[in-house]
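Figure 3 (text version): structure tokens given as input.
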């Protein structure tokens, strides 16, 4: 198979895997949210930052090192396998001993046992990390999907079954653990590789010298991605964290799924024309405009329909999550613009600017959190909107040095779309108010259809280039 066919096949199976796995996880989370409640999700949310940090420590960038090593042999794979396993045991031991401190920090006694059980996933995943890296290295994404989907189905069925049987928070823990265990078993059963009794200090040094830099970057990024959960879990009621966790999860899934698809396609495209600054600015401008044309109405429409949406999907016990979700939608719609500006730095190999940007943005997040915290949980969530906007200015400032597309030009290009999407959201919200005594399904169908029609006709009347670009894509597809 040629490299082009491998790439296209890889993209297809990666997208399929993403949609299937996220779809299954979403369905399971909805069912468990109706069976359980904010408290159970809040408890798991409290330890999410520790689980994420632990996973970063265990992997330590070693999988990425294997994938990038051209002439890796069994000595490389076996060394990384035993190193991963050793790190997982060390990290698990650390969390096992500090579990009482974590429980005391959040003032939740049950967390001690949850941490000690949940963190077993470090060891489980370490057993199959090399097998997964090998499949990714060989671009066998179809086989990756075949291993992950059965494990996810097994975990989802087990989690939902435990939820119906009254296991409470352990339903969520069980779902993730069984998913990981099932996936690891599938990777072992379908892999032709198994570790021999080989270990090389030279290989260890080589892979760890590359991996630890990724690990440090990952630890910083992971901490700040979960810092809101850490603060809310410490200083607010566990139910408040449960509401935030569900609101953030719903928002994050929609935004990142769309952005990841566009980013994966745009990155190699921009790389090919990186020496043509005028052309790259034109292509980049089209990508920015089109992605925001799609994501802005989705986010503002979701915010407008949040109340009937949450009532129908999750039930009235989750209504306090609605305003949190609506605020997060405001910051989430700028996510694709952030991603594309970062892509420009990657295209031109400016990792120095990439690191500088990360440090600047983390400083901004820290300051905004300290200010937002003074105004309670809503102040914290609104601070994420503020940091998204300021970070947008920072990202566009540095990327504009690479291409002829300034911050003011980017903001100008998305401003009209923002107004149109805002008007659409207003129409949808107004219809839900008029129909508030009717069923949630009727509100969602009528308001959603009216919003889509309004957005289409408004863009058609204004002869929006993004609309006709989308229509051309559909025609070519057919």
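Below: residues designed for each position.
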């Amino acid at each position: 198979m040629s490299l082009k066919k491998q790439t296209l096949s890889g993209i297809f199976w990666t997208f399929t895997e993403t949609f299937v796995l996220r779809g299954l996880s979403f369905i399971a989370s909805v069912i468990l949210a109706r069976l359980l409640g904010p408290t159970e999700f809040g408890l798991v949310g409290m330890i999410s930052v520790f689980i994420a940090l632990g996973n970063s420590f265990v992997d330590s960038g070693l999988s990425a090192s294997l994938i990038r090593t051209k002439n890796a042999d069994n000595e490389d794979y076996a060394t990384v396998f035993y190193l991963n396993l050793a790190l997982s045991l060390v990290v698990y031991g650390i969390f096992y001993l500090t579990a009482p401190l974590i429980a005391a920090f959040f003032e939740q006694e049950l967390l001690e046992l949850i941490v000690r059980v949940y963190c077993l996933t470090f060891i489980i995943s370490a057993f199959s990390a090399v097998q997964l890296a090998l499949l990714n290295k060989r671009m066998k994404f179809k086989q990756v999907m075949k291993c992950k989907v059965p494990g996810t189905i097994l975990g989802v069925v087990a989690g939902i079954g435990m939820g119906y049987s009254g296991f409470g928070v352990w339903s969520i823990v069980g779902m993730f653990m069984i998913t990981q265990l099932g996936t690891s078993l599938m990777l072992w059963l379908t892999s032709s590789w198994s570790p021999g009794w080989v270990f090389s200090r030279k290989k260890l040094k080589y892979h760890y010298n590359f991996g630890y830099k990724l690990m440090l970057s990952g630890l910083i990024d992971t901490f700040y991605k979960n810092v809101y959960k850490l603060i809310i879990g410490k200083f607010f009621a566990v139910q408040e964290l449960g509401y935030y966790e569900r609101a953030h999860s719903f928002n994050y899934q929609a935004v990142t799924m769309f952005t990841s698809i566009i980013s994966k396609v745009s990155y190699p495209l921009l790389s090919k024309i990186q020496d043509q600054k005028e052309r790259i600015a034109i292509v980049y401008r089209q990508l920015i405009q089109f992605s925001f044309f799609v994501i802005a109405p989705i986010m503002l429409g979701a915010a407008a329909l949040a109340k009937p949406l949450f009532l129908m999907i999750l039930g009235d016990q989750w209504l306090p999550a609605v305003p949190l979700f609506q605020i997060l939608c405001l910051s989430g719609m700028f996510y694709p613009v952030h991603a594309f500006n970062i892509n420009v730095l990657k295209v031109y190999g400016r990792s120095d600017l990439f690191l500088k940007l990360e440090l600047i943005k983390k400083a901004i997040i820290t300051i905004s959190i300290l200010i937002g915290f003074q105004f309670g949980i809503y102040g914290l969530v609104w601070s994420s909107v503020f940091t998204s906007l300021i970070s947008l200015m920072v990202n566009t400032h540095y990327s504009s040095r690479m291409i002829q597309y300034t911050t003011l030009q980017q903001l100008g290009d998305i401003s009209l779309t923002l107004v149109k999407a805002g008007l659409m959201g207003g129409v949808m919200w107004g219809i839900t108010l008029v129909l508030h005594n009717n069923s949630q399904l009727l509100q969602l169908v009528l308001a959603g259809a009216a919003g889509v029609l309004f957005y289409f006709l408004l863009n058609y009347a204004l002869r929006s280039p993004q609309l006709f670009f989308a229509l051309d894509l559909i025609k070519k597809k057919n």
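The mean pLDDT is 79.
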